[in-house]
Amino acid sequence: MRLLPSAWCRRWLAPWLLAPWLVGAASAQLVPPSAPSAPLSLASDPAVLARTALGTERGTLVVGVLRGDKAGYGIAHNPEPLVARAIAPASAEQPMFEIGSVTKVFTGLLLAQAVERGDVALDDSVGKLLAGQAEGVPPAVAAITLKQLVTHTGCLPVMADGVTGGAALAEQFRSFDLPMFWAALARIRLTAVAAPCEARYSNFGMALLGQLLALRYGTSWGELVRARITEPLGMNDTVIPLGDKASRMAPPFAGDQRQQRFDMHAYAPASALRSTAADMLAFSRAILAGAQGPLGPAAARLLTPLARYEGAEIGYAVMVRGPETGRRTYYHAGVTEGYRTLWLLAPDTAEALIVLASNQRAPLQPVMLAIGKSRYPVPTAEVPIDPKRLADYAGEFRVGKAQVLGFTVRDGRLLARESGKGYNGLTPTGPDRFAVTAIGAQFVFRRGESGDVNGVTLTQGGSRLEGRRVGAAAVLQD
């Protein structure tokens, strides 16, 4: 889920193994002074991961790690003394958290189940599923398919009515009921003439998908989740209405400020679920079991790539990283006004990770980057380069419709940045190769027939962005 400011949230909710390359040396500021000296990975002690991911922020953070059939948990609290300790899966200490946009994975699984049942097809359109249910839906909107909704390629905006962030976004999440939602669909403005579009994250699109599935089965989205996912898997603490579980919710924060819990109606399929680490590992275990597990073939379908997404791929609302023939990582992240979540699967090692924080600003980034580095290492040994050759790489390289990478030379060093951001120093690691070693990002420049540099490839954490040269180097201002 995206909350204020929208640009800040984009970094956390989209390619968490890719976009943070920009932080460079600043990433050290996100690591608490007591951070472990040993590199973090999925094999790390969950208690150590918990302490690192909470840092010095207020609140509670629980990490659950699944390794084969064994689950382990770690918990950290602030402002109590920064002590990380183990937590039992059935313990009353298992607090509950809002999981934000990780809810979208449940909506994706509902679609995978519906496709496996033959109840819907990926090419079914919004108009087909809404027949006789809503009026005034523009033809271009009615033509959007379920596949485009679940992969964010349907040209739909982040939210309805031009809302992109701030208080208006939070208010729309809270206030929109179904009549308001369907009325907004009739006036929705696409980001292009017609789908499909380059993938662009849309809470509205994922909520629309969930509500269309609810219409198809004549029930509510929440009831579908209960009947087809949480109840069969014994996930008794994964709910929307809290009822008598309200006292188990970890108090939410944004920095030092207490926050309210985030209740919603029509947008429920995008961000409404609450859960525990134990429940989320039960969910992970069922998906890792594949077609032979309790979810049947839908578990495998959930992870099937369907479209390109910001340098990598996306399945049924699940982000996919890594090469098609190599190790792959599946994940989603979430953030609400007072909580932050990361859910991740590594089927090649039969591992899963859930990080649940009761602070919107919990510094999960060091943990996320460390896992990306450990699963997708890049060369980091420095290889000396003639400073005169650095000018070959200076210039601007477009890697997407709205994303440009800029390179310039200063004091005998090549620097890189994304449009509008600060520069970061690069380490030469070989011919036409440079790295941001702290975060496991690599730039490989390409040369044309003339020998001039005309392109660049950025790889990090299993993602890959291709850029072509579009302009000269920027001039650095002192």
Main sheet summary = 9 strands, antiparallel
User: Order of strands across the biggest sheet?
Assistant: 3-2-1-13-12-11-10-9-8
Helix content: 25-40%
Q: How many H/I helices?
A: 14
Mean pLDDT: 88
Number of strands: 22
Structural class of the secondary elements? Answer: alpha+beta
Radius of gyration: 22 Å
Strand content: 15-25%
**Poorly predicted tracts of residues:** 1-35
Q: Give the overall shape, derived from the CA principal axes.
A: globular
Model description:
This protein is of the alpha+beta class. It has helices at residues 6-13, 46-54, 103-117, 126-129, 139-142, 146-150, 166-175, 178-186, 203-217, 221-230, 268-271, 277-288, 297-302, 365-375; strands at 59-67, 70-78, 85-86, 97-98, 253-254, 257-258, 274-275, 307-309, 312-314, 319-321, 329-335, 340-346, 351-357, 395-400, 403-410, 413-418, 424-425, 427-430, 433-436, 441-447, 453-460, 463-471. The strands form four sheets. The protein has a nine-stranded antiparallel β-sheet with strand order 3-2-1-13-12-11-10-9-8, sandwiched between helices. Strands 17-16-15-14-22-21-20-19-18 form a nine-stranded antiparallel β-sheet, with no helix packed on it. Strand 19 (433-436) and strand 20 (441-447) form a beta hairpin. The model is unreliable at 1-35 (pLDDT under 50).
Keywords:
478 residues, alpha+beta, nine-stranded antiparallel beta sheet, 22 strands, 26% helix, 23% strand, disordered N terminus
